């Protein structure tokens, strides 16, 4: 007899007392952390969280889950009983906020509505209960303004214009100078705007307000700005957002009330201290919006010492509990401190490294966790140049150093222009009074952001830090006029749109014109020209040094360089390269040698060909002598010639013109005509898929054997000079094992001849690039003739996708990224499902044939942080990248090893 089981019913609502910080997938970051603070006994206003699962059902079906309304009602009843008042009741109303909260922080990208429950009746009760008419009407106008814009889709500028008119009529400049009667008139004006623009009255039923606000938060997950931010930060689009319904506490109840944002450490530098912003007589949105200039958090000690001391104690508790920099939002209501949010705070790249090592020294985290707290992308930011402090360029202002970096560009005053000019190749600085979420596309397009309002916790600062974008905020002495597209600086000088400016996100300085740059101290450290010491730059270098040392101890992947000459090889070695993974010999044949290669390709007779090869051999040998010397004791993988043929031939159009002109003038042109005929004979419609790589070596006798001889003779010369050359010969563009076998047989014969002639034993390994789908699919066969594989992921990506990189990136990649077809360009981060599957398949097949097969990657993905983790997972031995990216690859290889060992504690 079968047992009847009731179907599992999902729970869609959790009280703050039920969750914890580990439930971010379900409760979102905000809800999980509100629950965690509640569990810690911190002063959190009571409330409940609607889960991301409810959001997913709503977004998929267009309707909320059937059980959601009843669950919300049950939790609302419990909240009303706890607070001793009902939502929106006339005499003493309970008011709530409805706030978004996704798993990953998306500052300002989704919607929030405060003061829900106010109506024409309950505003009177709130005024009576608070003993403050002005506060009640201010709260009501805020609700209508936020609800109208967020829920009903009314243009926000209409409310701002009405607010500005009210201030002008009163002859005041700030909101707080408006009195109760002024605000009451403003409420009437706001309701008229709603009626006209939304085609309905502002809802007076508090439950309707709350339900509509919940749906609006769900809908905000798929707004254009939210999707753009997720693409920028690589946040999955299927997570959904939770919704937090929280009983209201009020920072706009007078001078003994206020709201603020605090950091347990400076998010710009990582230094410990009192960092944050506070605004008296305000609600939370006023601070992050940057529309009123705040005071530094330290001034709260003079304003309200009791609340200040309590806040400092709570900040210490949270940092010790989360073992990381915490970003905190709080409100003080008539001397009572309330915690509204905490999260692990976004920080600059320099702060990330400093904080990680500080927390190790404090015993809060271990070195493995410290390594996971930083990223290769952050390290790359630290290696960018910085402004020369001895510049003679005029400084015209100074704001708050919100996000470091040296940014130079033309001043633009709206996001549309920033995007338009950027797409035309211009570098721009987005200049605004303050930014808001609608400015996101312009912020992404700009080199940096400059605002005249706001602080380190404003929208501009928080978003810029998250993106690693240079930002200076709160430069109050700069008068920004976005309508006239200009900025007036002290002294009266006017910066028009298109004028060049420079901003320093490390100092907050603003300059007219272009400031010269100098190398980053982190680059100087990698170059061996700087050591740890006492100043700020040295502290950063010390933090980078410690984390890099741990990464090097932990990583399994070795890191090599893509380098074609001794100078690049030496620099790569200073940056920590453990060899050369790709020496592109075609780069050695440009310039003065191009004519020799041209003669070789176009040779009609064996004697002509031999003459060209004979001239090239000593030049090639010297190239390799220098390279083996620079990388003595480390492997050097030399790829034999692999250019598209047209790179070494005269331009067919120019040559045709020369021949035509010579004929019209009846001048001798036999050589040009012979050359033109040869170029026509060898002309290809698609050179990237034509006579190149191994095909060129097989068609032009002696070409590859000349290069192999040069490699072997150079290695023998270095050995005779007591050096330790470790040459590896790589055959490009192999598609079948037969190609490799033929070239290998010729190469082995040449090496044997050099050994016999020099008396030096050479151990040169021979392998191939895997850059064609067929090579990957037949890797087991190819491994029979190869001692190593190096994955050429640039060409492999082109041939797997059927893309011509030079064409597609400019033509349709932007549209593909905007439509979400790509989260990121497959040329930037490896396509794990397609290209990555072939890499994994080829690696496994190759090692089944030859267990000791060495595996590496030498495409640009070798220096991409996310791709490095993939290469670790599939068992490659090394990655190879440009010299500048070697530290990034080293760091990420260490992080990949820690993650693979299950030590990712976050």
Provide an overview of this structure.
This protein is of the alpha/beta class and 906 residues long. The protein has four domains: 13-247, Dna Ligase, domain 1; 258-347, D-amino Acid Aminotransferase, Chain A, domain 1, CATH 3.30.470.20; 386-518, Glucose Oxidase, domain 1; 555-590 and 604-643 and 703-901, Phosphoenolpyruvate-binding domains (TIM Barrel). Helices cover 46% and strands 17% of the residues. The chain is built from 36 helices and 31 strands. The strands form six sheets. The protein has an eight-stranded mixed beta sheet with strand order 12-22-21-14-15-16-17-13. α35 (865-873) links the parallel β30 and β31. α4 packs across α5 (133-150) and α23 runs parallel beside α27. It is elongated and about 105 Å long. Mean pLDDT is 89; it is low at 1-9. It catalyses: pyruvate + phosphate + ATP = phosphoenolpyruvate + AMP + diphosphate + H(+). Mg(2+) binds at residues 771, 795.
Report the CATH architecture of the largest domain.
Answer: Alpha-Beta Barrel
**Amino- and carboxy-terminal Cα gap:** 47 Å
Give the strand order of the largest sheet, numbering strands 1, 2, ... along the chain. Answer: 12-22-21-14-15-16-17-13
Helix content range of the residues, please?
A: 40-55%
Report the count of strand segments: 31
SS-derived structural category = alpha/beta
**Count of helical segments?**
36
CATH topology of the largest domain: TIM Barrel
Strand content: 15-25%
* Major β-sheet profile: 8 strands, mixed
Query: Nearest-angstrom radius of gyration?
Result: 33 Å
CATH class of the largest domain: Alpha Beta
């Amino acid at each position: 007899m079968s047992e009847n089981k009731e179907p599992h019913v999902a729970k869609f609502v959790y009280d703050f007392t039920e969750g914890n910080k580990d439930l971010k997938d379900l409760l979102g970051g905000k809800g999980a952390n509100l629950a965690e603070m509640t569990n810690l006994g911190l002063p959190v206003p009571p409330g409940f969280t609607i889960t991301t699962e409810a959001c997913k059902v709503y977004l998929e079906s267009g309707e909320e889950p059937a059980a959601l309304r009843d669950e919300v009602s049950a939790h609302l009843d419990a909240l009303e009983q706890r607070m001793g008042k009902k939502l929106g009741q006339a005499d003493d109303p309970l008011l709530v906020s409805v706030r978004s909260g996704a798993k990953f922080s998306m500052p300002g990208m989704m919607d929030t509505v405060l003061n829900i429950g106010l109506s024409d009746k309950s505003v009177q009760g709130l005024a009576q209960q608070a003993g403050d008419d002005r506060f009640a009407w201010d709260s009501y106008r805020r609700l209508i303004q936020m609800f109208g814009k967020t829920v009903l889709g009314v243009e926000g500028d209409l409310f701002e214009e009405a607010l500005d008119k009210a201030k002008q009529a009163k002859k005041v400049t700030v909101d707080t100078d408006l009195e109760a009667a002024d605000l009451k008139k403003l409420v009437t004006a706001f309701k008229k705007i709603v009626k006209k623009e939304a085609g309905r009255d502002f809802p007076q039923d508090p439950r309707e307000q709350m339900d509509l606000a919940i749906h609006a938060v769900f809908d905000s997950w798929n707004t254009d700005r939210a999707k753009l931010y997720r693409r920028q930060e690589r946040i999955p689009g299927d997570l959904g957002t939770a919704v937090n319904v929280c009983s209201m506490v009020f920072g706009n109840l007078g001078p003994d009330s206020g709201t603020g944002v605090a950091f347990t450490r400076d998010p710009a530098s990582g230094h410990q201290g009192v960092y944050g912003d506070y605004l008296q007589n305000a609600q939370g949105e006023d601070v992050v919006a940057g529309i009123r200039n705040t005071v530094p958090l330290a001034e709260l000690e003079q304003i309200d010492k009791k609340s200040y001391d309590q806040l400092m104690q709570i900040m210490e508790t949270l940092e010790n509990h989360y073992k990381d920099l915490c970003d905190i939002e709080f409100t003080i209501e008539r001397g009572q401190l309330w915690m509204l949010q905490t999260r692990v705070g976004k920080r600059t790249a320099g702060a990330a490294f400093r904080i990680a090592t500080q927390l190790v020294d404090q015993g809060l985290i271990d070195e493995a966790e410290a390594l996971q707290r930083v990223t290769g992308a952050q390290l790359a930011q630290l290696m960018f140049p910085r402004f020369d402090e001895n510049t003679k360029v005029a400084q015209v202002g100074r704001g708050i150093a919100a996000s470091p970096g040296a940014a130079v560009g033309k001043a633009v005053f709206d996001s549309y222009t920033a995007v338009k000019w950027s797409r035309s190749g211009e570098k721009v600085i987005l200049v605004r009074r303050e930014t808001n979420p609608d400015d996101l596309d312009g912020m992404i397009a700009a080199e940096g952001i400059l605002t005249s309002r706001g602080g380190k916790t404003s929208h501009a600062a928080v978003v810029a830090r998250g993106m690693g974008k240079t930002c200076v905020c709160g430069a109050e002495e700069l008068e920004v006029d976005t309508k006239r597209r200009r900025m007036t600086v002290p002294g009266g000088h006017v910066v028009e749109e298109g004028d060049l400016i420079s901003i320093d996100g490390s100092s907050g300085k603003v300059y007219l014109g272009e400031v010269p740059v100098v190398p980053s101290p982190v680059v100087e450290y990698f170059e061996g020209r700087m050591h740890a010491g006492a100043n700020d730059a040295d502290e950063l270098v010390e933090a980078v040094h410690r984390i890099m040392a741990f990464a090097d101890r932990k990583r399994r992947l070795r890191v090599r360089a893509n380098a074609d000459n001794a100078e690049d090889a030496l620099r790569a070695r200073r940056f920590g390269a453990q060899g050369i993974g790709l020496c592109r010999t075609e780069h050695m044949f440009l310039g003065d040698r191009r004519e020799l290669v041209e003669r070789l390709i176009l040779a009609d007779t064996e004697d002509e060909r031999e003459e060209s090869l004979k001239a090239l051999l000593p030049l090639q040998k010297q190239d390799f002598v220098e390279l083996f010397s620079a990388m003595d004791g480390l492997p050097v993988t030399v790829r034999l010639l692999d250019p598209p043929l047209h790179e070494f031939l005269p331009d067919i159009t120019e040559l045709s013109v020369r021949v035509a002109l010579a004929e019209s003038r009846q001048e001798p042109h036999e050589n040009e005509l012979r050359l033109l005929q040869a170029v026509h004979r060898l002309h290809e419609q698609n050179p990237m898929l034509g006579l190149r790589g191994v095909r060129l070596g097989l068609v032009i006798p002696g070409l590859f054997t000349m290069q192999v001889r040069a490699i072997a003779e150079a290695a023998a010369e270095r050995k005779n000079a007591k050096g330790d050359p470790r040459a590896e010969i790589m055959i490009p563009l192999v598609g079948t094992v037969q190609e490799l076998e033929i070239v290998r047989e010729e190469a082995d014969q040449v090496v044997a001849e050099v050994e016999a002639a020099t008396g030096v034993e050479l151990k040169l390994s021979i392998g191939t690039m895997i850059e064609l789908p067929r090579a990957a699919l037949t890797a087991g066969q190819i491994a029979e003739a190869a001692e190593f594989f190096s994955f050429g992921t640039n060409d492999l990506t082109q041939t797997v996708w059927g893309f011509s990189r030079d064409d597609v990136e400019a033509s349709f990649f932007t549209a593909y990224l905007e439509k979400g077809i790509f989260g990121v360009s497959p040329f930037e981060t490896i396509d794990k499902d397609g290209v990555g599957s072939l890499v994994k398949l080829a690696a496994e097949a190759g090692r089944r044939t030859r267990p000791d097969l060495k595996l590496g990657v030498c495409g640009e993905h070798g220096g991409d942080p996310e791709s490095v983790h993939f290469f670790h997972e599939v068992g490659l031995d090394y990655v190879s990248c440009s010299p500048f990216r070697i530290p990034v690859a080293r760091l990420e290889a260490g992080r990949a090893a820690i993650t693979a060992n299950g030590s990712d504690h976050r």
